[in-house]
Amino acid sequence: MVRLTRVQQQARTRAAVLAAAREEFAEQGFLPAKVDRIAERAELTRGAVYSNFPSKRALYLAVLIDLVEQASEPWVTVSPTSRVDALGVFARVWLERLPLVGDAAPGGRLRLRSLDGVFEDERGPAVLAQLARLEALLLAIALERGAPARRVRLAELVLTMLDGAGHRAETAPGFGDPFDVAHACRHMAEIDLEDTWAPPHLPYVAPARTCADAWTAPEGLVDQISGERVELANGLVVVLGASRLGAAEEAVRSAKPGEQVTLAVVTGDPEETGRLVRLRVTDAVGCLRRVFAPEVWQHVRLVLDDDALVASAIGVTDPGDDTESAVSVRDGVIVARAHGRGAGYAAGARRREATS
C-alpha cells in the first residue's frame, strides 16, 4: 500500500473539494449552494472543506480560478493589422464565455464567471471597480502599441459593452446576437473620444525621496502577463493594494519610454480579495494573450504579491488593500522612494529627473 505524504494528501483533498464544489455550484448557483452538500459530494467532512477554504465565497472564487486556468492557452496571437481588427478579435474571444442556450442557469453563470450575489458588502464592488481600471489599462497598452495617443477610455468603453453583454446573457439567456456585439466593439475603434492623460491631482503629489539604499530583489516572482520570471535589478517597482489598482496608470505613464515598470498587487485578505484579484487578472490576461503579441507589454510586469515579498523588500511593513508605495531601482540600488497616494508617479518622475 502506497502511503501519501502530507502534502500529497492535502493536494488530493483540495482537488476533491474543488471538483465537488464545481458540481454543486454548477447545479445550484452560488447562493443556494451548501458547504455540507459539497463535503458530502467529496466524501469528506465539513471541517475538511473549511480547512482548505475558509468560506463558501473563497471556495467559489477558487472554482472560478480553476476553470479559467484550465481554459487558458499559451500565446496564440492572430496579429491583427489594425486597432479595429484587434478589438473585433478581442471581443469574439471574450464572448466565448457566454452560456449556450441550452445551459442550465447555474452552470451558465459559472461559465460566465458570474459574481452576482457573491460580494454584497462595500469592499467587493470597490475592488472590482479598481480591477476594471487595471484591465482597461492592460487592454489600452496593447491598443496604443507605443503610440503617444491614450486609449484607456476606448478600452473602458469596450469592456463596459462586453460586461453588459455578459449581464444580459445571465438575466435574459438567448437574447441578442454575440456577433453583433463583436461587430460593435470592432467599430468603437473609430470613435474619437479625445482621450488625454492629465489627472488634476498629480501636481500636488509629494515628491519622492532620493536615496542610495541597498536593494535585495525578491526571487521567484512570475509576471502574470508573460508567464516569465521577473528581474528587478532596474526600473520602477510599485506596490499597490487591491483598492488602489487604478493608480497603476500613474506609474506606467510616469516611466521613461522603454523603462520597466513592475506592478505588484497586495491585499489584506488573500483568501477572498486575493482570489478575486487573481481571478480577474487571470481571466483578462487569458483573453489578451489570444489576440496580442507579448511584446506590446514588454515594459510592464504584473506580479500578484500574495506573500508580500515585494512589499517587504521595498519597506512596506503592513501591506493591505490601501497600500501604495514605490521605489526606483538602478543597477541594484534604490535611488528613490515614495509612499502614499501618487507614489508610483512620484518615484517615476524622480527617476526621469535623475536620468534626464
From TrEMBL:
InterPro entries: Homeodomain-like_sf, HTH-type_TetR-like_transc_reg, HTH_TetR. Keywords: DNA-binding, Transcription, Transcription regulation. GO terms for molecular function: DNA-binding transcription factor activity; transcription cis-regulatory region binding. Residues 34-53 bind DNA. It comes from the Bacteria. Residues 11-71 form the HTH tetR-type domain. This is Transcriptional regulator, TetR family. The lineage of its organism: Bacteria, Bacillati, Actinomycetota, Actinomycetes, Pseudonocardiales.
